[in-house]
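Lecture notes, structural biology module. Today: joint structure prediction for complexes of two components.
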Amino acid sequence: GDSVTQMEGPVTLSEEAFLTINCTYTATGYPSLFWYVQYPGEGLQLLLKATKADDKGSNKGFEATYRKETTSFHLEKGSVQVSDSAVYFCALSGTASKLTFGTGTRLQVTL
Amino acid sequence: DAMVIQNPRYQVTQFGKPVTLSCSQTLNHNVMYWYQQKSSQAPKLLFHYYDKDFNNEADTPDNFQSRRPNTSFCFLDIRSPGLGDAAMYLCATSRVASGSTDTQYFGPGTRLTVL
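The predicted structure, tokenised, for the full assembly:
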């Protein structure tokens, strides 16, 4: 079945550092890939998505590229801020639009 | 703004006392989902409605039921909450379950405490 593996956290960075959160997937067919962000006590917000190979999703300085050859969708940001502290979920959508989530990566950004 | 709304944000119930969580949407989406998220875990899909068609996940306990009286509203009923049902419950919607490109939009969640 479909599965998503993302790096374990927590990830602790200083403000303005470069961020990478790794995400790889296993799926049949051609899934869409998503990154969701969850701030403390809140629901999930869509951060970005990509629907086909080589697509790059981007939003609020975050980027991720759909790499079919490596089955990856790594999240990157060039300069993180304290306000980016949250839990980040990688997810894929296969048949019937069901989302399969990774386990989440907690990011903590310090001054 | 169009959105997914969940009420209440925090719900406290007693062990074994039925509780209902509600979700409404102004997106006019066909599909509505309920997820359970326990602390430090990924959301787990309980069931979803595609219009009026109910789709239960195989491992969702019978204790959990759902109703969708119209396009805008969907309810999660927990018939006899146990301590293990304490969690954040997330409602989500998507336009049409016609393929993998659909985005799911989430509400803010209801945090359920069972005493």
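Point to remember: Residues 20 and 76 of chain A are 5 Å apart (CA to CA).
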